[in-house]
Amino acid sequence: MELWHNTPDAFRSPDEVVEGVPVGLWIGTWPIEMGQYVSVEWTVTGKGRVRKQEEVQAYWQYNDDAKGNSYWLATIGPFHVNDHVEYVVKGMSQGGPTEGTVYSFDVAPTPL
After folding, report:
1. Does residue 112 fall inside a structural domain?
2. What is the extent of the structural domain holding 55?
3. Does residue 24 lie in a domain region?
4. What is the CATH number of the domain that holds 47?
């Protein structure tokens, strides 16, 4: 299983994360096959440097049969202003576990 994120077809939404808004993480996998599992492990460091870690399941959304890709969506947050969030996408298939790159963002205040 190959997996990817932070590309035009597998993006973070919103790109600029603001306080109080959940974050959608699109993840792509290849090839299309039964029995896949995709998740996101995330860590947030917030006010007073409190650290919280959690793993959430990504849910299958659709297949692109022409490319042989599956697309998944995980939702994390919402977060507080000045939180620092790091996350990694993970996958499991018949071929075993796989893990992507670590991504991060800082949470901005809600625009006035």
Report:
1. no
2. 2-106
3. yes
4. 2.60.40.10
Peptide bond into 78 cis (omega under 30): yes
Question: Starting from the edge strand earliest in sequence, which strands make up the sheet with 51-57, in order?
Answer: 51-57, 37-45, 84-93, 96-106
Q: Output the pTM of the full model.
A: 0.93
The mean predicted confidence, pLDDT, of the chain is 95
* 49-to-25, 43, 84, 107 alpha-carbon distances in Å: 24, 12, 9, 14
Other CB atoms within 10 Å distance of the CB of residue 27: 26
Confidence of residue 4 (pLDDT cuts 50, 70, 90): very high
d(CA 89, CA 56): 10
pLDDT over threshold 90, residue 50: no
**41: pLDDT strictly greater than 90:** yes
Residue 63 maps to a domain: yes
- Contact 3/100 with Cβ under 8 angstroms? yes
In a domain, 7, yes or no: yes
How many domains does the chain divide into?
1
Cα distance between residue 85 and residue 107, in whole Å: 8
